[in-house]
Amino acid sequence: TQAGLPAGSSDVCFFCKQRVYVMERLSAEGLFFHRSCFQCESCSSSLRLAEYAYHGPS
């Protein structure tokens, strides 16, 4: 568990700002995402952690 948070607690998805639980989240660049929210900004295709490139804030 994270400091002070009980097991099963959650973080917030960077894109949709909704709760994302440990078992359903992706983590990239120090941020958390729902799998469905982790998409290409240009074409909206779903991305995998091994197949993305971060280009910084647009």
TrEMBL record:
Keyword Zinc belongs to the record: yes
Protein name in UniProt:
LOW QUALITY PROTEIN: protein-methionine sulfoxide oxidase mical3a-like
Q: Which organism is it from?
A: Scomber scombrus
Q: Which InterPro entries match?
A: Znf_LIM
Q: Does the keyword Metal-binding apply?
A: yes
Pfam families in the record: LIM (PF00412)
GO terms, molecular function: metal ion binding
Q: Which UniProt keywords are present, listed alphabetically?
A: LIM domain, Metal-binding, Zinc
The chain positions of domain LIM zinc-binding read 11-58
